[in-house]
Design goal:
globular, two-stranded antiparallel sheet, 5-stranded antiparallel sheet
């Protein structure tokens, strides 16, 4: 099933990622936070060190958005309806 949010809409909501791992065309996949992905958009804090958000993709499908918690872990981030 395709996700309701495409890459363009994610870019509008979150802006350009600070870093990226993998690629939409990378055949290797990874599993993190219960989601299988082959491309991860990483968003860092203003100091450029701490990761504050991760957006995970499997090809063109959004598989999860996770934000940092105070304890260093991550939790799923609710997404806007439209």
């Amino acid at each position: 099933m395709r996700s309701v949010m495409d890459r363009g809409r994610a870019w509008e909501l979150f802006g350009a990622p600070t870093d990226q791992e993998g690629s939409v065309n990378d055949p290797r996949s990874h599993e993190e936070y219960g989601a299988r992905w082959n491309e991860k958009w990483i968003y860092r804090s203003d100091d450029g060190v701490a990761v504050v958000r991760m957006v995970l993709w499997n090809r063109y499908d959004l598989v999860g958005v996770f934000r940092a918690k105070g304890d260093g872990g991550f939790e799923p981030e609710p997404l806007p309806e439209s």
